[in-house]
Write a structure and sequence with these properties.
This protein has six helices and 15 strands. With about 270 residues, the chain is of the alpha/beta class. It has one domain: L-arginine/glycine Amidinotransferase, Chain A (5-stranded Propeller), CATH 3.75.10.10. The radius of gyration is 17 Å and the shape is globular. It binds citrulline.
Length: about 270
Amino acid sequence: MKIMSTKSFSFTHAITRQPSFSVVSGLRSTERGEPDFELMKRHHLDYVNALKQADAEVIELDPLEDFPDSVFVEDTALCLPEGAILMRPGAPSRLNEVKHMAPYLRKLYKNVHEIKGPGTIEAGDILTTEKEILIGRSNRTNLEGISEITAILEQWNYKVTEVLTPPDILHFKTDCSLLDSNTILSTERLAATGCFDSYKVILTYPGEEEAANTIRYNNLVLAPEGFPKTTRRLLESGFNVVEIGNTECAKIDGGMSCLSLRFTPKK
Ligand code: CIR
């Protein structure tokens, strides 16, 4: 795989948070059974090790029992080379997760903004590519949240494109991920909206829509295990793929991107 140095997938650091025992009560859109905590912990360890294998310095935070979904740190902040932006989650039970992330980001970044509201936005709805930042409106991310973050991103000279997350999909990135500076992995239903028309798109294999949420971290793509036909498509396109078990997080709508913040700090 060609190693390119780009701001959208070249990083030095990652933040993860251990699942809490309460994770078994995490929010979910449909009931798919209770997550097996021990198995989730093993998958989480594999995930952290894969980030390290991709040269990440991983800051592993302690579990937060009061916040069942706090393992999904991605939703609390957007981290860019210019600074970090603290989100304002649309799920009331997740709102105060941000307070527990803020001190770590303030240590690592000089520039930390926060979404003050009344709008809401979760970073699971934000896809940063080399040429723009796509933000999906969803049940968690509304117009006010998008306009508040857009004002900050435009100061940093980003082009922001608002897109619609198809109905019944939790977050925009539930259905897509960035593979390289011009390639997106997407489900057919999301690509059909036209939001990736200016990119090269690799589609998830029909029936393997859950494989769409991966992460590219330096030269590695972390992809969920159990979707062999989509993984084959990635391998055939020249990506280095490491598969990580995700069956337990999937029961509460979580995937590869949700489990980390990926960034290069700037003091
Ligand atoms: C939630 O509903 O908020 C969690 N159970 C799942 C969050 C997944 N996060 C993400 O896609 N970025």
